[in-house]
């Protein structure tokens, strides 16, 4: 009996010792990132008005939140992402299997805007190797087989203007949004990414 009690005590002491160590900093940060992704996905999937009914301000704020979520997504999954903007709207892309593919993740789905929305994208210099075209092509060079298959289908995958790396780095940019029909009555909304900050600013249209 004494031996059994001693063995039991040792097991209990060992259990307490293991629990007293707690979580490591990496584990805490990983849990926080996952919680942030879940919260962001829930917020971004809430019902909202269609893009044609939303103001440039609403679209700018939504894109800012999506970019922040995309950065967390890239860091947690360690997968490069990109953002492609055109006259139809914007979409998030992922680098997978040697080519850029449209990302259909919750909270990062394609957004199309109205015909009256006007946009202007400018990439800033001195930020990330994405501004170095040779380095960009070397790292994200399409797979030859995938490229040939795309040519046969006569559909080239879109290329991102903005890169989001697994390290959290993002191409520096500014994206201005306004309504071409109400330009004189409304302000122009500017989304800017500088280092690790994504800002939404209101600027008078007369400046442009």
From TrEMBL:
Record's signal peptide: none
Membrane-spanning parts: 23-46
Keyword terms, alphabetized: Cell inner membrane, Cell membrane, Membrane, Methylation, Transmembrane, Transmembrane helix
Biased composition (Acidic residues): 144-155
General secretion pathway GspH domain location: 63-184
Disordered: region residues: 144-163
Main location per the UniProt record: membrane
Subcellular localization: Cell inner membrane
InterPro entries: N_methyl_site, Pilin-like, T2SS_GspH, T2SS_protein-GspH, TypeII_GspH
Keyword Cell inner membrane: yes
Membrane topology summary: Single-pass membrane protein
One Gene Ontology biological process: protein secretion by the type II secretion system
GO cellular component terms listed in the entry, alphabetical order: plasma membrane; type II protein secretion system complex
Protein family: Belongs to the GSP H family.
Name of the protein: Type II secretion system protein H
Organism for this UniProt entry: Idiomarina aquatica
Taxonomic classification: Bacteria, Pseudomonadati, Pseudomonadota, Gammaproteobacteria, Alteromonadales
């Amino acid at each position: 009996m004494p031996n059994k009690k001693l063995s039991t005590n040792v097991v209990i002491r060992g259990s307490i010792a293991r629990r007293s160590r707690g979580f490591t900093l990496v584990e805490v940060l990983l849990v926080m990132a996952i919680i942030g992704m879940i919260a962001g996905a829930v917020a971004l999937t809430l019902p909202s008005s269609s893009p044609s009914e939303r103001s440039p301000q609403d679209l700018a704020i939504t894109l800012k939140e999506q970019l922040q979520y995309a950065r967390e997504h890239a860091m947690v999954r360690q997968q490069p992402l990109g953002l492609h903007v055109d006259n139809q709207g914007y979409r998030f892309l992922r680098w997978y299997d040697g080519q850029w593919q449209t990302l259909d993740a919750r909270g990062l789905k394609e957004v199309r805007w109205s015909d009256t929305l006007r946009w202007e994208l400018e990439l800033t210099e001195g930020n990330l190797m994405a501004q170095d075209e040779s380095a960009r092509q070397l790292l994200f060079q399409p797979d030859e087989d995938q490229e040939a298959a795309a040519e046969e289908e006569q559909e080239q995958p879109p290329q991102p203007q903005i890169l989001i790396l697994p390290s959290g780095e993002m191409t520096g940019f500014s994206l201005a949004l306004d309504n071409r029909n109400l330009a004189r009555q409304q302000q122009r909304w500017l989304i800017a990414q500088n280092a690790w900050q994504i800002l939404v600013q209101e600027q008078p249209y007369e400046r442009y």
